[in-house]
Write a structure and sequence with these properties.
The chain has 71 residues and is mainly beta. The protein folds into 2 domains: 31 residues, no CATH class; 39 residues. The protein contains 1 helix and 6 strands, in the order ββββαββ. The longest helix has 10 residues. It starts with a strand and ends with a strand.
Length: 71
């Protein structure tokens, strides 16, 4: 699933002290439904020039959300 910015905007993400800027027409992927493990995600991010910044999961480790940043 993706979102598309209808106009240029800045989005403040509370709790991690970040401001994300979008240009008009920019796409934001909001969901990837797949089976991944944390080690696999970290390896793929590193191979792509990113590093895992934060990993959130439910108490049973069934679902996860990751935040990555470029290195």
């Amino acid at each position: 699933m993706r979102l598309v910015a209808r106009q240029a905007m800045e989005v403040k993400v509370p709790g991690i002290d970040r401001v994300i800027r979008f240009v008009e027409g920019e796409h934001l992927r909001t969901e990837i439904s797949a089976k991944f493990t944390r080690p696999r995600v970290e390896a793929e991010l590193i191979a792509s020039g990113f590093v895992l910044d934060t990993w959130w999961t439910d108490s049973e480790n069934r679902f996860a959300l990751s935040l990555a940043r470029a290195v």
